[in-house]
Protein 1
Amino acid sequence: MGSAVAKTALLAGHEVSVLDEDPLSHERLDAGLDGTWEDRGGRFTVGTALEIDALLEAGIENADAFLCATDGDNTNLVIAQIAARRFNVPRVIVRVMDPFRAAWYAEQGLETISPTAHAIDMFEKALDL
Amino acid sequence: MYVIVAGGGKVGWNLARELIDKGEEVTLIEGDRRRYLVIEQELEHAVQYGDATELWVLERAGIQRADLVIAVTGDDEDNMLVCQVAKEKYLVDRIIARVNNPRNLQHFKLLGIQPAVSATDLILRLIEHEVPRYGLVHLLALEEERLEIIELEVQPGSPAAGQRVMDVDLPEGCLIISVLRGGDGFVPKADTVIEGGDEVLLVLDPGLEELITPQFTAPV
């Protein structure tokens, strides 16, 4: 999910920095691009988002938007709050699979996206419920 | 008192057992099915199976009437979020969180999760207490109450050595509450004379350490 949005954003002309704990995830960023991710102007940092040093290296202090799209809801919810409260990133968007927590954190002011809630919605529409 | 413990590892299981022995009502929540089945043999209905970061699991455990929620899983993000929803969504009066990696302590603070207990930090403090390399030991920090107790070594030749307690030049918001001399501790009076080699305990508003330590440190 993160890599797809990162590529779209880069191709749309934005400055994009990706932080991932797995160095091999870089390959997914290269796939389908002419040249490597870096050739196209992208940045890539290896580290976890709970490490402040990694966030700084990835350039969080200058970020206009921060996307939390790891495969863990709990990690995403914590780093989203770090980005918003500690680094005052103006726009923080966080992936939360669990629709109930997505709803509650949205009430608390986080911009949450719940793929599960969307899928449930689509199933229900498909079934005319 | 009704206590919910999230995480049935060594810490959580033993904590639940001790609290039950003390007569408290306890629900332990464990997310690993095999581990849950093992614990269930002993704790029976006092353990529930589920992911304690999910709201319905917490609600099934009766978080609305919990007096205390303790999050002691091996995952710091889980502990932070269990405590955050306990405090902010379900308005639980008291929370306690375990910090696995002391570098994450800053994140617990950022999210307002207090107290956050780190075994590594506790052991480090004990080491400092046994081997006071820096002369200053934090004995107690009550962050919410904004109160600290520190222990300081009075170096011979420091401004405080040879002074009466009332004459030591200390900032507003701190008080010498105990003097340890030759292995004995006593509560000083205003005219008690502080000697070099004493250890003193002070109660203070947080942040005053830097103003206090020079009084007990000999000029280089």
Note: The CA atoms of residues 27 and 45 of chain B lie 8 Å apart.
Protein 2
Amino acid sequence: MAAKKPKDDLYRVLDNEGKVLKGAKVPEVSDDELHKIFETLLMVRIVDDRMMRLQRQGQLGFYMKSLGEEASHLSVFPLRKTDWVLPSYREQGAWFWAGYTIKDFINQLFGNEEDPIKGRQMPVHHSANWLNYVSISSPVGTQIPQAVGVAMGMKIKGTDDVAMTFFGEGTSSTGEFHVALTFAGVSKAPVVFICRNNGWAISVPTDKQSAAESFASKAVGYGMPGIRVDGNDVLAVIQVSRDAVERARKGEGPTLIEAVTYRREGHSSSDDPSVYRADSEPEEWAQKDPIKRLRGYMKERGLYSEELEAEISERHNQAITDAYERAKTLGAPHIDTLFEDVFEEPPWHLEEQRNYLMAQERTKNPHHH
Amino acid sequence: MTTMNIIQAVNNALHTEMERDPSVVVLGEDVGKFGGVFRATSGLYDSFGSDRVIDTPLAESGIIGAAIGMALYGLRPVPEIQFADFIFPAFDQIVNELAKFRYRSGGQYPCPVVIRTPYGGGIRGGHYHSQSPESLFVHTAGLKVVIPSNPRDAKGLLLSCLRQKDPVLFMEPKRIYRASKGDVPEEDYEIPLGVANVLREGTDCTAIAYGAMVPVIEEAATLAEAAGISVEVIDMRTLLPFDIETVLESVKKTGRAVVVHEAPKTCGYGAELASSIYERALEYLEAPIGRVTGFDIPFPFSLEHEYLPNADRTLGAIRKTLEW
């Protein structure tokens, strides 16, 4: 974490053990919903663990974990089916919450013939138009003005839908962040900005990213509220997100939420955090683990048991095993698909290039691959 | 039929389509009440209101980023970039996002944004109001590039762009924005993308251009005719996907070709056209293909007419193909 210590203005509901803080407002979340939240967070943790192991075994090219940040993904909790999400690359929990299956998730990682995006992007760049989850891009921040455009479209069409977009605190340094919040402030578009402040942009800590008091404080410059929430407290995340979504739905405009959390592992499978930070840092943050805190709260409500967690974990593990066992037997998408979707219909020059490729010896005899 | 210039024709196309399709939205700098610095969106604000004709903050990446979001959501945004020279803050949004959305999402997210932007020199605008960056965008997989050269084409091509589902960069030749006048049907009509126009038939050499260079090659053809040289004149109209058949048919007939554009020579559009012709019709050629282009220098201010291709330089290149 950065040397900078902003004043303690975090919105919190739970303490580090999951007990409700004195005077805290607990958001309305039913037993079933709480159960589903717990399942979703566990899903992220188990999938992350299994996928990174596959990566280390050389079975998977690349992966990005969310260890410790899972609760911030549940910012999508208050959204409806007709709302839109423009994610960055570290919000697996948002996808699972919306109903993206582990099968689709793993097929995308493998870029195989059942990958929903036909093997067009490297691992973790999902897209699911049936959920209104928009295709992920690697250059950071590009999705932020796009989310504002979606929200402006919602306003133009006269719906009361809401767009939500995620990005890391490092991305708040981009021009796209500034431009997008400027557009959103002026247009009063129904959009909610979730800044996952996980302390690190690959190897660069927050104090090298911004001299602002906090990332939420930047909202002032754009004429919208900025709220800091404990990003490891799933109930607090849900409460501030629910308030922001309701504001947007009522036509009161955008909100910037800074979910303060911590990236306990590397940026990606290609990173080595031991080069730039002390091991004690992630260890400290493990004390504030979001799943540990959720367990504590569920116990209070009489909803937790070790058997329950074991049953959910077993189910998730089985689903992952099934999806992986199938995914690894599937081949790459057919070579014909290479030229699809560049345009609605391939123009003559793409047909010509396709025919050229199809006539290659290597194409005709795939065993030469 | 009404006599219109290119600005009026663009404006007429926007009116026509906004009337017909409620999902069409215009956005950009000064496009609202003011009607655009060149007046291309004049009257739209009064006719369609501030929801559909949006004066945006002054940031090109925001204009294109927001347009992308609107298109993903099912609208038909028509962002205006005030000058093509100002398009570069939005380069990432155009090249990496807009042009790639359909492909990278496996066909889930088509993104039909039509970007309008005035381009080109000869208006005493210097480097930042004169450039012709079309080749950077023709080189971008997933983007169509269209450049009209006259009012009738401007309306018909723009209407076609707004009725297909791929992103398009629609570049308007501002040097002849007002100078180019002609009869434009008031009714709704489309000119198909990917189809070039043979403006004048000839037998000795094919001159090929687009946008503001079309009148230049027409003038050169007239000069050539006086010298007893018969030049066929082709207006490409769509730079990508381009009409290779019309070009080849002409070159096979004349055996010679000269390509003219105001953008710099190296890796310019002329290089692609020439190469495409060589690959398919080398045996028909009587001479190397000529290129008359801007130079590989930043666009100058005081000496812009030395920089820009003209009829004399074009005629010189035509003669060279005949003398070879």
Note: Chain B touches chain A through 47 residues (CB under 8 Å).
